[in-house]
Amino acid sequence: MGPLILIAALLAVEAPQFQVDSIGGTTVAGTLVRLDAQQVVVHDSSGDHALKLSEVRFVGAVENQATNSSAGSVLSDKSTANASKSKPPEPPTVVVETVDGGRLFGFGYEVTKGTARLKLVGGDSIAVPTKSIHRVEFISASKPVVWPELPKDAAGDLIILQKKDAVDLAEGIVGDITADTVRFSLEGDVIPVKRTRVVGLVYFHSGQAASPSHALAIVENKAGWKVNATQVDLAAGHLSVVTTFGVTLDWPLEAVRSIDFSPSRMVYVSDLPLNSAEWTPLLDFGKQIDAISQFYKPRFDRALDGGKLSIDSKTYRKGVAIAARTVLEYKIAGLGRQFRATAGIDDSVHATGGVQLTIEGDGKNLYSGKISGRGAPVDLNLDVSGVKRLRIVADFGGGADVGDYLDLGDARIVK
Q1: Do 197 and 162 contact (CB within 8 A), yes or no?
Q2: Among 159, 236, 377, 411, who pairs with 344 as Cys (CB 3.0-4.6 Å)?
Q3: Are 268 and 260 in contact, with CB atoms under 8 Å apart?
Q4: Which of 279, 301, 305 lies closest to 290 in space, CA to CA?
């Protein structure tokens, strides 16, 4: 039994660890053992934790999985030794951006009859219809190339060319592409352009681009790829990802950085355009000092001091940070039914901070209360069904005007 227990312990250390965040704010972390159309299951030292897939908003790899166990230390040493002997990965020579914002990194971009083929970083080869591709960038090993400004009124495909020490572009129709030639139609004439001269391509679709299927999640791997997926499934340590352009990708779990379900579940407030924002200083000197007003302006996905959003020792990937005497207003008509957030004083000033927080929907009070750094954070879950304008007001919470820095961690409108 001893050797079996040791093997199990080593496997547990090797298994990539993930943190799963739910819409309701629950967080679990451990080994990802199941992910399918029904649920996500995470295993930790206390057992299995299952969440309905419809309640999951984000799955992220836990980085720097250091362990104090002797088995973990030995494993880490071996991994480091193997890494030092392994050949560094070959840098990609092409970046493909799809019409729905996905990114693919690879080699050997070729096109035949409207279908592009390339070998991805990692070894897989895929075929993508060009009607699903927005732009292609060919990466030079010698020096980076700055693209010229692209015309906003283009009515055809664009080809970006290297001409001696300059970069130029032409508008026409991009046809088949081989390792040596790009067939480019310009005013009816087909011109075979040397592939080595081509810096990049932009496909013009004139409303005829493939309509991507409704994305379930945005999946990103550690090589920098990002694709919109209609389906994700975990099996035998690999994640199967069906993209919105119809290609199925297979990634080892340790290569996955994140699976973001939030776009299909919610809208983060920090991603919304501001309708208005105003900060009023305590003392009116007639003319605000610009440096002060810049410091006290709202921050998105970071704290007022530029660091991570942190409330009660918990960091937040998304959220809004505002100082006292700030008013924010958003247009949220049709975005969702609930406003959710964790409201608290940022950890950098929690001992002294305090604000009076008021949230209004179309002029109606939805929440009003004092948020104190000495007290527990407040989990907000407000009904915003039918609300067109959301107003967030932070005022002084009493006491000294010191550290009144409010964080709204994971502020979001849930659909």
Answers
A1: yes
A2: 377
A3: no
A4: 279
Q: Secondary structure of 178-216 in the HEC alphabet?
A: CCCEEEEEECCEEEEEEHHHEEEEECCCCCCCCCCCCCC
Per-residue buried b or exposed e for 183-214, using 16+ beta carbons within 10 Å of the residue's own CB = ebeeeeeeeebeeeebbbbbbbeeeebbebbe
CA 215 to chain centre: 14
Amino acid at 342: T
User: Mind listing the pLDDT tens digit for each residue in 64-123?
Assistant: 644 333 323 233 333 334 444 456 678 899 999 999 889 999 999 999 999 999 998 877
Buried b (16+ CB within 10 A) or exposed e, 331-343: ebeebbebbbbbb
Of the candidates 214, 267, 265, the one whose C-alpha atom is nearest the C-alpha of residue 242 is 214
Q: What is the pTM of this model?
A: 0.74
User: H or E element: which one contains 80?
Assistant: helix 70-85
DSSP state of 396: E
Cα separation values, 309 from 22, 327, 357, 397, Å: 18, 19, 18, 20
